[in-house]
From TrEMBL, chain A:
The protein's name in its UniProt record: Proteasome subunit beta
Family note: Belongs to the peptidase T1B family.
Lineage: Eukaryota, Metazoa, Ecdysozoa, Arthropoda, Hexapoda
Superkingdom, taxonomy of origin: Eukaryota
InterPro entries: Ntn_hydrolases_N (IPR029055), Proteasome_beta4 (IPR016295), Proteasome_bsu_CS (IPR016050), Proteasome_sua/b (IPR001353), Proteasome_suB-type (IPR023333)
A family per Pfam: Proteasome
Subunit structure: The 26S proteasome consists of a 20S proteasome core and two 19S regulatory subunits. The 20S proteasome core is composed of 28 subunits that are arranged in four stacked rings, resulting in a barrel-shaped structure. The two end rings are each formed by seven alpha subunits, and the two central rings are each formed by seven beta subunits. The catalytic chamber with the active sites is on the inside of the barrel.
Species for this entry: Aquatica leii
Gene3D superfamilies recorded: Glutamine Phosphoribosylpyrophosphate, subunit 1, domain 1 (3.60.20.10)
Keyword set includes Cytoplasm: yes
A GO biological process held by the record: proteolysis involved in protein catabolic process
UniProtKB/TrEMBL annotation, chain B:
Keywords: Cytoplasm, Nucleus, Proteasome
Family: Belongs to the peptidase T1A family.
Subunit structure: The 20S proteasome core is composed of 28 subunits that are arranged in four stacked rings, resulting in a barrel-shaped structure. The two end rings are each formed by seven alpha subunits, and the two central rings are each formed by seven beta subunits.
Gene3D superfamilies named among the record's database cross-references: Glutamine Phosphoribosylpyrophosphate, subunit 1, domain 1
PANTHER family: PROTEASOME SUBUNIT ALPHA/BETA
GO BP term (any one): ubiquitin-dependent protein catabolic process
The protein's role, per its UniProt record: The proteasome is a multicatalytic proteinase complex which is characterized by its ability to cleave peptides with Arg, Phe, Tyr, Leu, and Glu adjacent to the leaving group at neutral or slightly basic pH. The proteasome has an ATP-dependent proteolytic activity.
Protein name: Proteasome subunit alpha type
Span of domain Proteasome alpha-type subunits: 6-28
InterPro entries (alphabetical): Ntn_hydrolases_N (IPR029055), Proteasome_alpha (IPR050115), Proteasome_alpha-type (IPR023332), Proteasome_alpha1 (IPR035144), Proteasome_asu_N (IPR000426), Proteasome_sua/b (IPR001353)
Localisation: Cytoplasm; Nucleus
Amino acid sequence: MFNTVDAYSAPPLWKNGPSPCAFHNFPGTNCENNDFTQHSQAPVTTATSVIAFTFNTGVIIGGDLLASYGSLARYRNCPRVMKVNDNIIMGAGGDYADFQYVKDLVDQKIIEEDCLDDGFKLKPRSLYCWLTRIMYNRRSRFDPFWNNFVVGGIQEGLPFLGTVDKLGTAYEDNAICTGYGAHLALPLIRDALEKNPLMSEEEAKALLTKCMEVLFYRDARSYPKYQIGVITDDGVKIEGPLEVSQKWDLAHMIH
Amino acid sequence: MFRNSYDYDVTIWSPQGRLFQVEYAIEAVKFGSAIVGLKNTTDAVLVSLKKASSDLAAFKKKIIEIDEYLGVTYSGLTADAKLLTRFLRNECLSYRYTENVCIPAERLLEKLSRKMHVATQRYDQRPFGVGMLVAGFDSKGPHIYEACPSGTFFNCKAMTLGGRCQSARTYLEKNFSSFPDCNLEEIIKHGLRALQSTLPKNLNLTNQNVSIGVVGADCEFKIFSDEEVYNHLLLIEGENHRPDCDEFDEEDDNNEVS
């Protein structure tokens, strides 16, 4: 903070005495300026793209396991595709600590609902709406959760897929990718869905695998280990860690 | 009414283990005009008797819409009912704001009964002097709930509250087993008949003093217009479901209750 003594400031005028250009803390008192709050201005430990789309009977969400510290591949086993309840799966990109915090809120919400024991279960559209409120509230306090959330599920027999970003902007679509995925994977998925609107679960998995592969080669913050979450009428499956099959023998031909 | 020295405060038990203040509040429900709630497998119906506080006053509104799929009718202190319906509407709105769906009736009743229950536990409050019937529709079908001043609520097949409701109760008990097989029109007719049975001989159901509210699978909560009420009254015209004995005495007209 301002006016504190550190290694670079001038030494005190005498032992335990005041320093030039600094507020003096009299002995036995501590009047440092520490009544401040800091709002989040940048993510710290980040996760990259989330890939999600609907298929014939459900929704599939994929995300790799890396949490980067800047460009450093810092933590390599950070799952970010989660089961919320039997109706809902969720994926997250952006700040990993914020994701963990929001995950705890969501888990607590589910626990409270289970405690009511009234037979009603949270539906994907409701969670999507709730997340929008949370995110918009935080951005309005100038302290956003630095995340992109993707909510998938089955509601009234139909696949649901929606996303919320750190500003509380929310939309539904049948294919949603965040971060670099929006540039690299989304065109592939839209193309595939256009050619084959009633994709089966196997085809969906193959498409997602392809996307993870493309992203691993082109996105410098990605990682070959990833998880996928699939929700259908049969329930929720979180699979992984899966591995991108890598092939580098062409690399020397690229200049 | 004064029973003994144990009814001065809601927080004081009588040695017999009773809370007289709460029991008096339950008595207050009987001062209101009769209300009936009933349901078949797809719809929930509220039928209420409206009273005018004087010949110069309009009939009071007895059925109140809470949300798209929720409505209530009440018997007892009108002011308390107004406060509680405002609370219910607020709860519905905030649930809708965060979850984007209408609150399930049971969850709403849980909140309502908690609010009513608190008033029976604190020395600086009095119990709410109002009984409510809530009609709702959610993913589990149609519901009729009764909320009681003691802070309990009941999931009902059919229920009636308010002045002279005993004869309506008798009618409902006699007929409720057939309700699931009724269509909407028949269930409304049952409601009107039950309500008619509460009336003294010199009074009849008219589209002025009857209010009907319906909620169902494919209809949001709706309060019938005078014309629709009239058309349904025509369906039971000429029927008489009043009990034979005519021992009804005139009720004291208290303007604060309806």
